[in-house]
Specification:
Layout lengths: L21 H11 L3 E4 L15 E14 L2 E17 L11 H6 L3 E5 L5 E10 L4 E9 L8 H15 L4 E7 L3 H9 L3 E6 L14 E7 L7
Parallel strand pairs: 6-7
Antiparallel strand pairs: 1-4, 2-3, 4-5, 5-6, 7-9, 8-9
Length: about 220
C-alpha cells in the first residue's frame, strides 16, 4: 500500500473513449488537435476555477475481501448505481493545499481551447524517496470530454515523469468511480493496491474504497 496518499478530494471524471458514440467521437476528435497542453502559470491559477469538474457515475465496483486458512481472496464485483450519482466540486484552486507550490514547480499542466479558456488540468506530486510521481489532480471540463483531452494530459504527465528518471506514475481513485477506472486501464495503468480506510472508517459501507493504479516506466517492465 502506498505510504503517501493522494488528496482525498481527487476524483477523475474521465470516461473510457471506447464508450463514446462513434459519431460524437469523430466530431470531437476533429477539434481535439486545436487544444493546447502547456504548463500553468501562476497568474492563470484563478482561471482554472471555470472548469466544470462535475461528474456522473452509473457503475463501479464493490470491494470483497475474504480470509480463510487457504489465504486471502480479494475481488472487485461490478456494481451499477441506480440512479447514477453526481458529484460537483467548486473549490478555489488558489486555496487548494500545495497546488500553488506545484504550479511554481512546473508540475501542473492545463488544456487550453483556441479561445484561451482552460478545459482541463493535470497536477503531479513527486515522491522522491521511491523515484515516482502521483497524479494529484486530473479534471476535464464537462463540455470537453470524450475527445482525447484526458489522454493527452496523461501522456504529458508520463513524458515529464520519464524525463525526471521516475520508475512509475501512480494514481488514486475510488471504486465508485467506474468511468475513471476504465479510463486509466485504457491508458495501460494496472491495479496495484487498495485501502478501505483511507477516507474514513466507513469507506466500505459508502463504496468509497481507494483504488491505486500504476504505470511502470522502467523499460524492462511492460505496462
Amino acid at each position: 500500500m502506498a505510504t503517501e496518499s493522494t488528496r482525498s478530494d481527487v476524483h477523475c471524471p474521465l470516461p473510457s473513449e471506447d464508450s463514446v458514440d462513434p459519431m460524437t467521437s469523430s466530431r470531437s476528435r476533429d477539434s481535439v488537435d486545436s487544444i493546447t497542453i502547456r504548463r500553468t502559470r501562476l497568474s492563470e491559477i484563478a482561471m482554472l476555477n471555470s472548469i466544470d469538474m462535475t461528474y456522473t457515475s452509473s457503475f463501479g465496483y464493490a470491494f470483497a475481501l475474504e480470509e480463510s486458512e487457504q489465504g486471502v481472496d480479494v475481488r472487485l464485483v461490478p456494481k451499477r448505481f441506480e440512479p447514477p450519482f453526481e458529484r460537483a466540486y467548486d473549490w478555489d484552486w488558489r486555496e487548494v493545499e500545495d497546488f500553488v507550490a506545484n504550479v511554481r514547480a512546473g508540475r501542473v499542466w492545463m488544456a487550453v481551447s483556441p479561445q484561451g479558456q482552460p478545459v482541463g488540468l493535470i497536477e503531479l506530486r513527486e515522491s522522491a524517496w521511491n523515484a515516482s510521481f502521483w497524479v494529484q489532480s486530473l479534471f476535464v471540463d464537462r463540455n470537453h470530454r470524450h475527445c482525447g483531452v484526458g489522454s493527452r494530459l496523461i501522456q504529458t504527465a508520463l513524458a515529464h515523469a520519464r524525463t525526471q528518471g521516475a520508475r512509475a506514475l501512480f494514481v488514486e481513485t475510488q471504486l465508485s468511480n467506474g468511468p475513471a477506472i476504465r479510463f486509466y486501464r485504457g491508458q495501460d495503468f494496472r491495479i496495484c493496491g487498495f485501502n478501505d480506510h483511507l477516507y474514513s472508517n466507513s469507506d466500505l459501507q459508502h463504496d468509497e474504497v481507494a483504488l491505486f493504479l500504476v504505470y511502470p516506466l522502467d523499460s524492462t517492465i511492460a505496462p
